[in-house]
Amino acid sequence: MNTSKHSLLNPTTGRAVSALSLALAVCASPRAEAQSTATNKVADPKKAAEADPNAEPVNWITLGGGGVSISGDKARFQERYGKQQGGLGGLKDFHYEMMVGQKGMIELDGKAMYGDEDYSVKLKWVDPEVGFVRGGFRQFTTWYAGGGAYNPSTGLAISQGDNELSLRRGEFWIEGGLTPPDGPMLTLKLSREYRKGMKDSIEWTESNNVLGNVVAGTTRCVMPSFRELDEIRNRIQADLKHTVGKTDYGLALRLDMVDNDNKFKSSRYVTSVTPLQYVTQRDVFESDLFHVRGTTESRLNDQTMLTSGYSYTRITTDITGGSRIFGTGWDVPYSPAFPSASPYVSVSGGSIVNQYVMNLSLRLEPFQDFVIVPSVRVEHNDTSDSSFYTTGPVAPALPVNNSTASATGLLTVNEALEARYTGVTNWTFYARGEWSEQNGALQELTTSGPIYRKTESERFTQKYTLGANWYPLRRLSFSGQYYHKTAENNYANAWDSTSNANLPLPGGSGNRYPAFILQHSFETDDMNVRATWRPLPNVTAVTRYDYTISTIHMRADQLNNVENAKTVAHIASQSLSWAPWSRLFLTGSFNYSLDSTSSASQKVGDLLTEARNDYWMANAGLTFIVDDKTDLTANYSYYSADNYVDNSLYAMPYGTSENDQTFNVGIKRNFTKTVSGSLSYGYFMHNEPSSGGLYNYNAHLIFSSLTYRF
Fold it and tell me: What is the model's pLDDT at position 646?
């Protein structure tokens, strides 16, 4: 019952992005330009190529095509690398520009890749003395794998059917700005963003069926689930910037209008003899966001700079519909006769969030080579919400109307003091202290139960960082950093609908929910050192070591303080680059990580094992310049992890054991001054013993492109 997921922080994801980038590197467009947020800065346009017959062409069109062949688990390959099975091709990149008047310019960019499902068009007019207008559209698809857990005793994996899920994302926008040389700069942007499709969820549901369990009658959360998203966000942004004397002033306004109609779908086996139940939870709501902020940046003198800012944000949400329905299929009408756990219908309600933020920062250079930066940030949040819904028990019981309400108030003050000294030859020293104090209160009330609680909280966090960089030789440098961070969270539960005293004590309830935690404490120590050495002009070596240790303690009502978890991580890495010849460039790297998290729960039999994220990975690359028109590239990477522990007889097993190999080779050639082409091939192999091989895949990617400049 493997439950591994690839997150943005997982080294597996980094390998996936790196491998795919290498596979397509030789097919890169002549220019990659990411869409940015509103800006007032407009560069002076360059003259088009026709203004100078000897100038380099500034316009181009790139056509590309290829395909992907996958054997094994297609869904997991598509999720990791963003490429789907089959052919792909079309307009990979297009750019055209022409002068308008003396300084004006019009630019048109586009992309339309079938198979990748990536389409975009952008049109821009700019005149540095007047302003700019630009607008465009982009739509692309991300893929997800929807499979569930793997049962090592049966060799089966839980599935909801088609595991190849996809989500379409897109945006329309138009933006304009006035950028007079000596006057205030104003920009206005209107956009409409959307997401529509399905993606997997890590919120799995229970099964009491032999398919998902080793021992009949036991329950495991192994049933996969997924989300159907239908989301629209309309946004208005306005920015005003102006400089008066030595001070820059900024004023920004943002309005967001959100309309979501989402569904969470899962299934469950309640007992080993009951049929499969399908669960559809629908959440329909509208949300409006209003945000305004003002900033200043003042250069008081050559040694002093003062920055300040203030913002206000208000978010209102209206729940316009919702339900959780159990049935013989998804999206079925509610039936009181169907046996289910906790269905509800007719959801309504809403919430209001008010946020106030103020910050102040001062940069001082009291004497040469020494800089000190004190800063403070104050934030106040008020949140209130309420909801109403009808529960539908099994017939012949009557429906029950319920309500919930909560209110939260938080005041947070953050202070920081940073200092940097460069007065010692070949040395840089720096230190930073960060402190955060927070006071808050939470009230919750629900008629179901009933449940009520009032909790007041105090939080204090502090972090201290020390570091230095040393350059003893022109080709040798060292750097090191250490930080210590602690956090203390204390809770006082003034109201609690259930007594935390254990039965059979008088007044004891045996139910610690909802308010039972009195204290949480966190402590982390982290250090890293790095050495960069160039023993030869064409050789560079970088060595790095990281060490982290973290502990979490908790004290609950009626219980002693215990160590909840302890994490220890060692990460060592080495990279080497060598250019033995002016036409040949070689790179290599190696990473080794030991990362473990232990918990007090491990003392309770075999229910929970030590969580490990140990792995090692190696990469090698080659670039060879055949001649002034032809380049060859080749790359290879290997990754291995062995962290899976099969304790499915007692509990849900976690961790993964897998290894990956990727190989990429490509060629790029400039046929003429205006025509170039490329061809690349990539091989991807994934082997996952912890899933019984069911999630394994082998994939081949081939892609070619042709660029014409004019």
Answer: 84
**Residue whose pair of structure tokens reads 């809770």 in the numeric block:** 491
pLDDT at 417: 98
What pLDDT was estimated at residue 189? 98
Q: Mind spelling out the 3-state secondary structure of 167-185?
A: EEEEEEEEEEEECCCCCCE
**The pLDDT value given to residue 709:** 96
Query: Using CB atoms within 10 A of its CB, is residue 15 exposed (0-12), middle (13-18) or buried (19+)?
Result: buried
| Residues in the chain with pLDDT values less than 50 | 1-43, 45, 47-50, 212-214
Beta strands in 208-276 (DSSP E): 220-244, 247-268
The structure tokens listed for 242 are: 């102006």
pLDDT, residue 391, reads 84
- The CA–CA distances, whole Å, from 166 to 15, 28, 76, 200, 285 equal 21, 25, 12, 9, 23
pLDDT given for residue 9 in this prediction:
36
User: What contacts 24+ positions apart, CB below 8 Å, involve 160-166?
Assistant: 160/223, 160/224, 160/225, 160/226, 160/265, 160/267, 163/73, 163/75, 164/74, 164/75, 164/78, 165/75, 165/197, 165/198, 165/199, 165/200, 165/226, 166/141, 166/142, 166/197, 166/198
CA separation, residue 448 to residues 205, 283, 319, 501 (Å): 23, 20, 19, 22
Half-sphere exposure for 234 (CA within 13 Å, toward CB): 5
